Amino acid sequence: MKKFALIILALSLVLSSTFALTISAAEESFVVKENIAVMEGVTYSWSGTWKNNGVDSTAGDPGSKCFDGNVNTKWGSADVANGDQWVSVIFPEAVTIDGFKVWQDNGIYTDIKGFKIQVQNGSATWEDVYESPAFADKWREHEHEFSKPVTATAFRIYIPADKSGGKAAVELTEIHVYKIHTYTFGKGNGNTQLEFDSETMTQLSLAGAVTNASSSNNPSSNAIDGSNNTKWSSVGNSTPQWIQIILPEVQNLSGFRFVTDYNWTDIRAYKVEVATKDGWKTAYEYSGESMKHFQQIEFDTLWNTDSIRFTVTEVGSEALAGHGTTSIDVLEILLFTAEAVEQEPETNPQTSDLSVFFMVAFSVVVLSCYLLRKRGFGYSF
User: Fold this and answer.
1) Taking CA 343 as the corner, what is the angle to CA 339 and CA 346, rounded to the nearest 5 degrees?
2) What is the rounded distance in angstroms from the CA atom of residue 269 to the CA atom of residue 295?
3) 310-321 residue pLDDT tens
4) CB count, 10 Å around CB of 289?
5) Global pTM value
6) Pairing mode, if any, of strands 171-185 and 28-35?
7) Per-residue pLDDT tens for 37-50?
8) Among 258, 256, 267, which residue's Cα sits nearest to residue 292?
9) Which of 166, 190, 240, 368 stands 20 to 30 A from 25 (CA)?
10) CB 68 within 8 A of CB 231
11) Residues 37, 176: contact at Cβ < 8 Å?
12) Cα 105 to Cα 109, 113, 251, 301, 321, distances in angstroms
């Protein structure tokens, strides 16, 4: 009886491998620092602006510019002779904060030597949760991850007047308050080999999508925010540089629109890859003359994926501002989906009628041999 059970088990394994071959691959994952300082419902407050010492003064360069996603705009504080300076973000509800990153303007009018991070948690009292080191040299950006998450209803960067480095004011360009998330991707099947109807192409909603990049001077999330007034910028102009979009679920992609800031970036070559169960697969490549402002591309077939990556591999010197490429600047990336064109199903030789016949016949032979042996005809395995 034991031998018969083993035979049936082996037969089951053969049949299962015949009718359903599944190749599994490890999913990829990465960490995203979500900037909750720009979440819906937040408000901002600041100590004043240059020559306008009233709290929340919108004259000149107001503190709200620290949250516009652009490290090239700035908050210029009120005169430090009038007291300590600060910028705060007030959340609509209590949030969990894992860390922060702050940028100082790179101009000559600021040289912050130190600052504090303070939070409120449901009260009007500000509590110190971090104090920066004493900066000997001028710094451009500073980041810190808390050893334990901090719960807060408000967050502010506080610069004592005696930490202004001898300058009349302090200037910050951007403040990120972040929560850490781990995302996985790589669950798509890749090239479906399915053609699609171009007339059914529609823009895919990127609500719930997140981004990642090889480097970020401006946040990579700016490339999917629906605005050509913000952008992702790499740090410097070295290549390759890449930006990745991770979708909340697997989708069939039919193409994309790749919009760059041609004032500062002259892209000559790039490739588009999609994440699949078998790793990254190239769906499109471009090289040659400058792509100028944008390209809109239709794939030959639908690509089934939950993540897409654009890698710039070559840049030129024809940016409109009259100089070489200074950084990789992407204004927007749009993704498209479409309906597949129905095709005649192809016969799979592994699941054809003939294959099924032979498998059934094989089962009958095995069972017959077993019964004959049971009756004493001497057949053995």
Assistant:
1) 140
2) 12
3) 999 999 998 887
4) 10
5) 0.59
6) antiparallel
7) 999 999 999 999 99
8) 267
9) 240
10) no
11) yes
12) 8, 13, 41, 47, 22
